[in-house]
């Protein structure tokens, strides 16, 4: 099989791995080296279907020794198999970089024989890129659960960011769908990466010089919709992962039925795209808005509202917290108001040091008044005649979003258009404001 045929198969096999984000690393170009890395903006991938590219997103191999029920590359599935040789993939990466096709590499792999052997193949590839070609571009590599700790460390010294897929939201689901993987084998490399990052930071403070270990941090991915866990269970797991492993991001992948199995949804089941979207919104609330998983969802409401985003849903269900007087409320309180995001809350705090804010001023600052107006006052005045404990608030929000008031209909998630976005859509997409 020639290199381009391998590339076609292994980029296609990598498209279901979504744990790919901006690099988080600033590294200027150095004379005698190839490439540089920017902390933001590297978030696209090279794929066989012609999508916009920035990273070469590819598997080392799809010849997997495991038989995970949900995976297209599982051992028992009838699909073409191939494996890159380390130098072959390194040469391909450099060739694409020199043609200005890519800015870096996103490398994952199925388990070829054993986790250690798979890691050795990936390690050889990274070594050729970094040491022989002196490639200074961004590299994100997936750690293989079950691999030796020394191999994980060597990968971390060559990569900018690493990730270990948590795969499924519970140990029971992992045992049922991926019996060759264990919770312990997944969490062990996550622990090692976390500790390595902390040790590296300590050495940098103490000695002002140390080998960089995963400077862009680590992330993970879990599959949503293949198993019966509630949204609350998933969000609790996410919160725990952020606290325990200091992750940069948790990524969610709506399960796409590609293989038939009695333990999985039927092949004609639609991917839970709205659920994935809600999880990303709730994830943003955990990381930037000061919410806890227990506030967003509880025993009485274990799943997301299909009509309202998590922040708006919380506000409607907690009328005792509103209205909020924007000229006096602390920053943390402003963040809880629908339509006021992190940026606009900071602007409010700065602006009110010099003036009393009114609704026109809030609009200029960037507050989305069609949502916020139900929950705020300016100098004691409200822009809405509806009390925050009135069910009409919900109807008003639905009306402003163009949804029918007579009954709830879940919104249909769709990709943001790059050609006809509204200003609000653009801000929400780029900043995650809620």
TrEMBL record:
Alphabetical keyword list: Iron, Iron-sulfur, Metal-binding, S-adenosyl-L-methionine
SUPFAM superfamilies in UniProt: Radical SAM enzymes (SSF102114), RuvA domain 2-like (SSF47781)
Keyword flag S-adenosyl-L-methionine: yes
Keyword S-adenosyl-L-methionine among UniProt keywords: yes
Residue stretches making up the Radical SAM core domain: 59-195
Highest taxon in the source lineage: Bacteria
Pfam families xref list: Radical_SAM (PF04055)
Coiled coil (residue ranges): none
PANTHER family hit by this protein: ENDONUCLEASE/EXONUCLEASE/PHOSPHATASE FAMILY DOMAIN-CONTAINING PROTEIN 1, TYPE II SECRETION SYSTEM PROTEIN K
The protein's name: DNA modification/repair radical SAM protein
Organism for this UniProt entry: Anaeromassilibacillus senegalensis
């Amino acid at each position: 099989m020639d290199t381009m045929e391998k590339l076609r198969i292994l980029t296609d096999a990598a498209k279901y791995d979504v744990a790919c984000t901006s690099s988080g690393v600033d590294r200027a170009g150095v004379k005698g080296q190839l490439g540089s890395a920017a902390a933001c903006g590297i978030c696209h991938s090279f794929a066989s279907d012609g999508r916009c590219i920035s990273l070469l997103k590819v598997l080392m191999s799809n010849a997997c020794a495991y038989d995970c029920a949900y995976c297209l590359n599982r051992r028992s599935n009838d699909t073409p198999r191939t494996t890159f040789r380390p130098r072959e993939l390194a040469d391909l990466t450099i060739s694409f970089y020199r043609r200005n096709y890519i800015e870096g590499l996103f490398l994952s792999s199925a388990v070829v024989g054993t986790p250690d052997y798979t890691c050795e193949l990936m390690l050889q590839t990274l070594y050729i890129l970094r040491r022989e070609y002196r490639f200074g571009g961004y590299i994100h590599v997936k750690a293989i659960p079950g691999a030796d700790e020394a191999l994980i460390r060597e990968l971390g010294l060559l990569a900018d960011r690493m990730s270990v897929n948590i795969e499924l939201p519970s140990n029971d689901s992992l045992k049922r769908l991926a019996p060759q993987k264990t919770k312990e084998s997944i969490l062990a490399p996550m622990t090692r990466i976390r500790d390595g990052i902390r040790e590296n930071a300590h050495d940098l403070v103490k000695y002002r010089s140390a080998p960089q270990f995963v400077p862009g941090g680590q992330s993970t991915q879990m599959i949503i919709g293949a198993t019966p866990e509630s949204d609350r269970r998933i969000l609790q797991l996410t919160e725990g992962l952020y606290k325990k492993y200091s992750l940069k991001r948790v990524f969610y992948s709506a399960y796409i039925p590609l293989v038939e199995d009695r333990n999985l949804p039927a092949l004609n089941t639609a991917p839970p795209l709205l659920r994935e979207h809600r999880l990303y919104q709730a994830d943003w609330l955990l990381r930037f808005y000061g919410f806890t998983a227990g506030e967003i969802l509880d025993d009485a409401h274990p799943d997301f509202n299909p009509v309202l985003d998590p922040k708006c849903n919380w506000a409607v269900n907690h009328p005792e917290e509103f209205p909020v007087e924007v000229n006096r409320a602390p920053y943390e309180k402003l963040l809880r108001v629908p339509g006021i995001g992190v940026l606009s809350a900071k602007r409010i705090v700065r602006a009110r040091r010099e003036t009393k804010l009114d609704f026109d001023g809030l609009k200029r600052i960037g507050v989305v008044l069609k949502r916020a107006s139900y929950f705020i006052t300016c100098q004691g005045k409200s822009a809405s005649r509806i009390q925050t404990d009135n069910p009409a608030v919900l109807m008003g929000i639905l009306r402003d979003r163009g949804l029918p008031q007579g009954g709830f209909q879940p919104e249909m998630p769709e990709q943001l258009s790059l050609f006809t976005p509204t200003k609000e859509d653009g801000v929400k997409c780029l900043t995650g404001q809620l």
